[in-house]
């Protein structure tokens, strides 16, 4: 049985003071319950601070990006080993904001996935179609391409350190147009099928596939109770402790032992 997975992606938000308070509130609010795997991904400058606050908690630290080289003349970039040094266990790669706003290609994302897995980081690989691609019935082709290239460097030995986040681009930061639980379930089933073709059925059944795109406490239970929807990659709602904790509770299927009520 796959463990539910909830990741907070703070994107380019917070300040040091806010990051510290938010981390503390989330770590305290989660208590000792381990039914849901929880990860916080702050901006690079706050990784050390957040990592420090998470010590002794059951929340893992993740980064939002990396550069696929061990070191070198790459001004402004951050290497996989630097993330490890800072205590990161996870890294988000292939996020649509990097694909579409910053122009990252499938080939570059493939390099990043390889670099992350090579040093022992766990990868959360984001895939998803734009609204135009969905309207043109290209969703499957887009996911095929993104998965085919994004997973090219994954091997039997590194498979267990990979999860997928399905994020339809049209649903991100868009409360009036988020995907329905059925749309998420269908896309996840397609991703699992493709994964099975690449790596075999046991690997496909073990694969954790999260949904991202305006996940809010109100719809989290309906979404996360769907077969094959194993978690949530949460943006906006992870910037406040109460809604984020509520989403974790929804993922656990109900009140969690040792989890204080959000408030
Ligand atoms: O990484 C998170 C996703 O892009 C979702 O962001 P959002 O919850 O603000 O729509």
UniProtKB/TrEMBL annotation:
The lineage of its organism: Bacteria, Pseudomonadati, Planctomycetota, Planctomycetia, Gemmatales. The gene is tpiA. Pfam families: TIM. It catalyses: D-glyceraldehyde 3-phosphate = dihydroxyacetone phosphate. It comes from the Bacteria. PANTHER family: TRIOSEPHOSPHATE ISOMERASE. The active site is at 95 (electrophile), 167 (proton acceptor). Substrate binds at residues 9-11, 173, 214, 235-236. This is Triosephosphate isomerase. InterPro entries: Aldolase_TIM, TIM_sf, TrioseP_Isoase_bac/euk, Triosephosphate_isomerase. Pathway: Carbohydrate degradation; glycolysis; D-glyceraldehyde 3-phosphate from glycerone phosphate: step 1/1; Carbohydrate biosynthesis; gluconeogenesis. PROSITE patterns: TIM_2. Its main location: cytoplasm.
